[in-house]
Amino acid sequence: MPEASILVRFAETNRVYTNGDKISGTVTLTCFGNLTLRAIEVYCRCTVVAYATIGDHTQFVEHQHLFQRRRKLFPEFQRSAARNVEKLTLRPGIYTFPFEFTLPDSEVDLPQSFNQENDMSGVFWHVRARVERCSKLQKPIVGQLNFAFIPSSVRSLNVPTREVVKQQKFVLSVCEPRLTIPGFLAKKKNLPVEVTCRVTYPASGLALGHYTESFIGLWLSSNIEHAIFIDRISVCVQEHTKVYCLSSQVRSEKPIISHPLVVLTPHMLITRKGIDLGWLLGASRISNITVGTIQLPHLHHDFSLSISLVFSSATSPRRQQVVTFVSEMFVQPRTISRASSVAGSSLTLVC
Q: Signal sequence: where (predicted)?
């Protein structure tokens, strides 16, 4: 049976904190027998934890505190009774100690709390209580409680260009007429096709919030005169986490999470002149994206825009060719005002 247990509680539950907020609560220490201790400390931390999966093995990469503040609950609360207290013996019972921290202001650039399901890597904001024993051979008693943090402002970051042009070549079966004695006959021929895809966004970026709509533009053209059709368009945002081990130059990628935006079956003709397509996207399309781009030395949480196109020719509609264009995307982290106790609703995407 353990000698004691420790529990951290917040005064406000289910709250999202931001810069400048005060986070308060209590540390409850339950002693099952006489407990002699040297110190009781409580920490407020922002910790980056990174684990890389290499083959069948999980390798620890990084454990770094980006922010830390500490309060000593003992011997501080005993100084009124005895000035030179080095240890304290508590009898069996329940002891409660209050704590309060002020989170850093917006001048300090700190990331949003982030952790994917069933993954040990992430950015963790937490309050941790620790009871130091008198002997170093005795393990400390530790209790910890995580909380959600979203910054109140985000510094301007260098983002990629708002217009991305990509070209891709493939072979498509088409019918080419030829002159014979009976007349014109069609002859099937495999022709190399080069499709140009240009994705455009507003100059201010793509803002996806509950009260905003933003425009995605797509321009397509081919390099041949034959009739080429686009049968299907799928647009999605891909969310992926990467862990970097700088010492061994090892990179571990977590499973990609896809968020569909647009799925169309237009069956439209593409020519050399090109065609223009576009969509208005609201916040409901990617409401399940909760964390923006995070770029730390060992942990990257990145996004990309994936556009999958299915092409066919007029003479061979069943022989389709799938082409996918992928472009890196910057997602501005959500922000929250100090007056609000729930997460902000706007996301800004820039490609």
A: none
Distance CA 93, CA 186 (A): 93
Largest CA distance in the chain: 115
Distance CA 291, CA 285 (A): 15
List the beta bridge partners of residue 237.
259, 305
Cα dihedral angle (88, 91, 94, 97), rounded to 10 degrees?
-20
- Please give the single-letter amino acid code of residue 184: F
Beta bridge partners of 128: 43, 144
- Cα separation, 69 vs 219, in Å, equals 52
Residues 6+ apart with CB under 8 A from 76: none
Tally the residues of the chain. Answer: 351
Question: What CATH class is the domain 163-350?
Answer: mainly beta
Say if strands 16-17 and 148-149 run parallel, antiparallel, or are unpaired.
Answer: parallel
26: CB partners within 8 A, 6+ apart: 8, 9, 11, 96, 97, 98, 99
Contact 37, 77 (CB under 8 A): no
Best CA proximity match to 341, nearest among 17, 33, 7, 5:
17
Please give the CATH number for the structural domain made up of 4-149.
2.60.40.640
Q: Convert the pLDDT of each residue in 141-200 to its tens digit.
A: 999 999 999 888 765 555 544 566 777 777 776 655 554 545 445 556 677 777 787 777
Torsion of CA 17, 108, 48, 254, to 10 degrees: 80
Does this chain's domain 4-149 share its CATH topology with 163-350? yes
Phi, psi angle pair for 342, to nearest 5°:
-125, 165
CA distances from 3 to 92, 214, 231 (A): 9, 59, 69
Residues 66/47, Cβ–Cβ less than 8 Å = yes
Lowest mean pLDDT among 154-163, 174-183, 201-210, 317-326: 201-210
Is there a contact between 230 and 310 (Cβ–Cβ < 8 Å)?
yes
pTM for the model stands at 0.73
